[in-house]
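User: Some background: our group keeps a shared notebook of sequences we're curious about, and every so often someone picks one and asks for a predicted structure to add to the entry. Today it's my turn. The entry only has the sequence so far, pasted here. Could you supply the structure so I can complete it?
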Amino acid sequence: MKDQTLHLGIQQRVLPAYRIPFFDMLAQEYAGKVSIFYGLPRAHEMLETNAVPQVALHTKGNNLHIFTGKFYLCWQLGLMRWLKQWQPDVLIMETNPRYPASRQAIRWMKKHQRKVIGWGLGSPTTQGFLGAARMQERSRFIQRFDALITYSQQGAEEYSRSGYPCDRIFVAPNATAARPTAPAPERSLRYEFNQPQVLFVGRLQERKRADVLIDACANLPEELRPQLHIVGDGPVKNSLMQLAQERYPQTKFYGALHGKELASLFQKADLFVLPGTGGLAVQEAMSYALPVIVGEADGTQSDLVRPENGWVLKRGDADELAEKIQEALQDIPALRKKGTTSFSIVRDEVNLERMLAVFMKAIEVVVKGSEA
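Assistant: Of course. Here's the predicted structure to add to the notebook entry:
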């Protein structure tokens, strides 16, 4: 049972808008005694950070971004001041050794007999000249946490291989939406207007790789070429529109859509495709009983997209994507079955309610451990 007298602290490098519903749900469970410390992203990251929690408390610090690439560091100015003011009983932090102030925060929490939970993607093998040294340093860093929360079984296995005790690793789905309340849409065993409908929803930037999707559609056999719907705005929209005009005129651009307009496209689609990284719309697509094709990225999709409900790209080029789209569209009964499985996954496994339950369990375990 949760202790509503607990003060929870959450450290985040940035506070993306998609994470706010989860933080507010967590704050509701702990009588509003949840405070988030965060900073702003780098300009090129193009994260939506203009929203703030309505239930959870929040403090914006100053992120000092140092270097780039494998040498990147983020010094979070103001973290210790917030920590001493809020005095959390449990601090949930990103398990990223590239944030030097985090080490100071962990030392402070340990000195005051408080608990620290790490939250991260996992600990993948690092190659290169300094790979072994970086792996050892990362392993030493994660040992300082009282428990770890990760998004996938893959992440849990990576932490375990780093020497962290399995019984203190918790797998919480990387959910961005609540459990669907409406029944799954029903789709017939034929394509509307005898043409499949393929949908892409996301910010139009290079890492989303919508250009690969356009090229892949152009590479399909003529009888399987879909109507391609691209929803979103962003810096590469004009170049994508030009590419589509040249390579695949059966592409329709909508700009940013929300609410009923977006829901209508999800309902009429037969397949959802996101070849790049950062697929926030994947779970929404699955809630409309859509099979999905996604790019292989950081492991957050590994428990969400499976052979039973879709495809995860390995190479990520247009030829591979065309192969997967063709495989999907040429067998309508199998496509519909995968869509039904998508709906079951977000209803039963990957949703905010399940994510919340795992976080609360991890908090309960570390608090009880301190009382034993």
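Suggested note for the entry: The mean pLDDT is 93. Residues 146 and 369 are 9 Å apart (CA to CA).
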